[in-house]
Amino acid sequence: MRLALTHVLEQNLKLEAGCRSEAVKMVILLTDGKSQDDAQLAAQVLKDLGIEIFAIGVKNADESELTHLASQPLDVTVHNVQDFPLLGNLTNRLIQLLCWKIQERSRSRYLGVPANRWPHPSITNLIVSEVTATGLHLAWTPPSEPTRKYRIVYHPSRGGKSREVTVEGATSSAQLMNLTSNTEYLITVFPIYKDGVGEGLQDIVTTLPLPPPSSLTIFSVTHSSIHLTWQPTNKATQYLVHCISSVSPREQELEEEEEGGKEVRVGDPEVLLEDLVPGREYSIAVYALFGEEVSEPQSIRVKTLSLDLPKYLSFSEVSHNSVRVHWEASSRGVQMYHVSYVSLEGNQAGEIDVSRNASSVKLNPLSSSTSYIVSVTAIYKEGDSSTLTGRVTTRKVPAPSHLKVTELPGDDVRLEWAAVAASGVVVYQIKWMPLGEGKAYEISVPGNLGTATLPGLGKHAEYEISILAYYKDGTRSDTVSLRYTPMSRNPPLNLVLASETPSSLRILWTPPNDNVLHYRLTYTLASGSGPEKTIIVPGPENHVTLPLLHPGTKYKVMVSAVYSLGESNVVSAIGRTAACPALHANRSLTGFDMMEAFGLVEKEYASIKGVSMEPSIFGGTWTYTLFRDVQLMRRASEIHPAALPPEHTISFLLRVLPETPREPFALWQITDETFDPLLGVTLDAGRKSLTYFNRDHKAELQEVTFDLQEVKKIFYGSFHKVLTLKSVTACTDQGF
Questions:
Q1: 412/508 same-domain check
Q2: Containing domain of residue 432, as a range?
Q3: Based on the domain organization, do 56 and 77 belong to the same domain?
Q4: In this prediction, what percent of the chain has a pLDDT beyond 90?
Q5: How many whole angstroms separate alpha carbon 434 and alpha carbon 627?
Q6: Is the peptide bond before 446 cis (omega within 30 degrees of 0)?
């Protein structure tokens, strides 16, 4: 340490090193330990030369040694800190003390006192008391020599105008007035003698802060205003009121930019703060102003009244991409409702304003399987209410439903499904593969469709078909699948042809399954010489009768099952209609003897009323006479066990007697159960004509009348033979 001080004296404080002779010289000694040599002698040499030494100790410095090395006064020149980083806290104070020392040295020179030579003693025991915001009291012990006066010099330690006060030498105290509040002052007291000035004694004092307003009281609070009062502060000229909202600094900054801040000056001890935000807490500070000086603040926290907020937040209609928010409306005065939402992850947010009459709103589009915080705020003219919040989680995206497979011609099938949502589906992905082993196939279908054609599903017994939906937000639904077995198109089984009558065949078969729409039945002569005819038999039926066939004739019948997706193979069989019976024994002519069927034979005629028998003029046979108004009736099935063949001939041998009625009458006819004629031959004696009539399949009457001269001969009283064919051909024994 001695070497350091000696080096400074010999090397740094030289004119050739730049040292100016008129400058005040200062040395700052910084040490963190104890000197290993005699540093006091080197220090004294510096001080004898008028050089001021400031001693600063760090950590383990020897404070006793520092006091021996430093210049007077020690309370100004000796300092200690606990560690090197704390030296920064000493910088400002050390600068002030250095400046003060330089000023004092300069002032001593001005007063004609040589540096470091004080011929008269200094005062001692400088005491500061009665410190207020604007003044303080000084007292000291007078020096041993009588003084004429005392000169008190004081100024703010951080710079400012220096002031001074002079008191008489008989006084050992002084009152400093009109100081600045809460300010650190450097005060020096110099004894002034008749022939010189003694060394000044210095102290540092901080004035008290000005008294703040007291007894802050909340007079009234509304939604948008706060009325405060307080006790008056003595000698205060005005009051400064500063209002800060309890929000983040950035929000406060924005509010102050928009509203011009919340700072007002008032002359009376009260203030009305208006245009505040409802339901918000404010920190209010009130300062007392004393001219240009400001007191410490008196603070209070006040919260404005909250506007009525919506109640009972609830949710409905929750889907994968939307939700309806409900709330109970607030009181009167609401202008609108502000509804906002944000996902818990914070990556999706939105907001919407709805009318004051609304109590619900639908939020969309949202993301599926996502939790949202939903907030509802009532907007008033005075401001916004507190926010009502709730949490809701959207559902998972729905999967396609109601899958249906329909076979198409060939090996294609059509897959149908119910649309999973009104919107939001971008594409459907469909996969299918045969069970067991085989290649998987897949296609993509636009999201606005609900059907797709899948090709090539006819080569395996069973398939698994699956479908899922992809949505706009990137999510996908669960996979829905079904198993599908291609439907077989089996033909009818056990085809049987049974002969009903000489003119009909009954066709029977076993249905292959329940999915037959109808059967296609085609028949033709087995010989192949005739045309084919086709009829359609409804699906539920398993038999049909073919009418109007030729007796004793072989027919080939072919039957196939028709399905919605196509037609089965054809099955066929051959059958024969029954032959007509022989008209007479030992004769080849087949047919029915209607005379015998109606009882007009020798052994039975007597039992029939209105009939007589007499020998025939032709010999070997009998003729029968039917009297007026006699009708012979039999059931058709008794005469024709089967219906009349489609082609038939009816032969009559008759004589019309002179007393025969003149109005038309039926010689022969077939009626239905209500006795409406269906088929027959009518004679009209008045017009002398013969009519053949028949009702077709539409129940419309068709008739042909013959009135040629040859026909008129029938009514001349002699026997005539009449042949009627289905083609309505008439002839007599005379050859027509």
A1: no
A2: 401-475
A3: yes
A4: 19
A5: 86
A6: no
